[in-house]
Each structure stands twice: as structure tokens, then as C-alpha cells.
Amino acid sequence: MRRKASLILLALAVFFAALSPLLRWYAFPRLAKIPAGQYQDMVLEAKDATLLDYGTMQARKVPKVTIVQTLKGNVEESEKIEKTAGKDVVVWDGLSYVVGPDGKMVSRIPERYIFDAHTQEPVHATGEMVDGDPVKRTGIEFKWPFLTEKRDYEYFDAQARVTAPIHFKGTQNFRGVDVYYFEQTIPWTKVKFPKTMPVEGITPESVAKTGTTRWYTTVRKFWVEPLTGAPVYGEEIHKEELRGGTLLGDRDKVTAFAGHVKMREDYIDHTVNLVKSNRTLVLLMTSYLPWGFLTLGALLLALSLYLEARSRRPGDPAPAKDAEPEPVSA
Fold this sequence. Notes:
- The protein has 330 residues and is an alpha+beta fold.
- It has helices spanning 2-31, 75-85, 204-209, 265-312, and strands at 39-53, 58-73, 89-99, 105-116, 129-130, 133-134, 153-157, 162-174, 177-191, 213-225, 230-243, 253-263.
- The protein is elongated and about 105 Å long.
């Protein structure tokens, strides 16, 4: 009976020992992915910013500029693209909506980002765009890969439509979460005017006729939780200028927008809590279960060997019988 039990335990030990690396190196890369229907929004603010009044074409100080960013998973489009891409694809329809202190729109820029659900690498397909203009992204945008590494990544800048390195600057602790800090600088670059302008009657085409151009620079900062690849916080030191042309009169340039853009406090708390929850799920697949199964396999192996050794031990000798007393001779 002990021999049979030891064989069963040995089989279980081999099973759990084999399951450990399979879960970590085979199952996790296939199971960890961004849901196709995910929706998220974010509110950022630039306090004490500079903003251009298109009515007077004068830059003025304002108490606050608000940026609302939304990312909505387009399940129908992702399913269409998956048929030809041969992989799990996520389609995010994004919108960056900027509002001035009076509640009026400053700019509205839609975006479609198509990427691999597992690796976050861009997938090029019809519909990939920024503000209606077709683009072909390289590098990541919005989210880092699962199990982010301590290295530089290529990051796509939607304003300039270029990809540039975003540099790993070190590790930090952000509100109880260990994160990697990344920073990217986009130098002054000539960029397109938004197709939706803040003043009725003004279009990118009408501005182009005046010879005035739009320029942009930013310092982009992200604090990224490495297991999930999700930013828990972000900032931008953002500047835009209009340069040259008859629109500015005798001026060479005017500030269109300048401000230190930061996530609003309530969205920071929500994001940190969400990332902590998702981090636990990733740890379950990459650490807790694999190491748990490996430990269980080792314990079962030890128990199996113990029972096997007990089954092979020779039986105890039979107790010696007392010799009967011999008769005493007379």
C-alpha cells in the first residue's frame, strides 16, 4: 500500500514541478492581454497656464486649462483586424479634449491606436490615425509592455507624429507602488494645426494661407508600474507657439499654450488602486503560483521518497520463544 501511495505522490510531484515553468513561460504570455472592450478616461490640469485668445491673438495667463483624455476599446474593429492579422488586436479610439477656464473648447484631437493585445506593439491597419491623418506608428503609446524592463523604449508622440526614445531614469516609490520613471523630450518641432479650431470660421487651411505655423515642444514624464506596464502617474511640461505670417502682425511668435500638465488628484487615486489590483493578478501568474507549484512538487517528492523508503524496510524479526525447562535428572 505504501508503494502505491509513493508512486501516486511521485506522479503529482512531477506534474506540479512541470506546471510551474509552463505557467510562467507558456501560459502567462498568452493569457496576459489588454481586453478588447476596455474603456478608460483621465483628467489632467495645467494650473496657472498661458493660453492664446484667438479673438485678440494675445497670450494671457489663465487659472487652469483642463485636458480630458478618453480611450475606448472598439471591439467590432478589433475583430475585423484580427481576421487578417492572425493575432489578438486591440483598437483604442482616443480623444484628447482641451477646455479653457471658461469651459469652452481649446482643441479636440481624435486618435485611433491599433496594437497587439499581448505585447502592445503597434499593428498597422486601415483606420490608424491622429486627427484624421493616417499614421504608421512605431514604438509604444499610452501603455508599456507587461513586465516592463529597466531600459529605454521607443514612444510615439501624437502631436509631432514622430517616434523618439523615452528614457529609463530609475526606480521610485509612488504612493506605495514601486515604479519605473521614464522621461522623453520632444524638441521644438513644427506640427499641424488641429482640424477643429476653437473659433468658428478659422480653419487650418485659412491659417496656412497667412503663413503662420504652429510649433510644439514637451517634456513627457511617466511613472510606470513594471509588472502591468501601466502608468500610475504622468506629467507634461508642454509649450506651443504660433510663428510668423500675417496672422501675428509685426510679432515673430506668440505663445499658444504653455503649462505644466498634471493628473488630477482623484484620478491619481483611482489609477493607483486599479494598478495595484491588476498587479496582484500578474504576480499570481508570474510568481505566486509558479513558486507555489514548485514548492508543492518538492514536498510531494520528499513525501514520496519517504514512503518508498518505508516500504522497502525489512520486517522486524519475530520475537524469540521462551525455551521450555528441561526435566531435572534424579
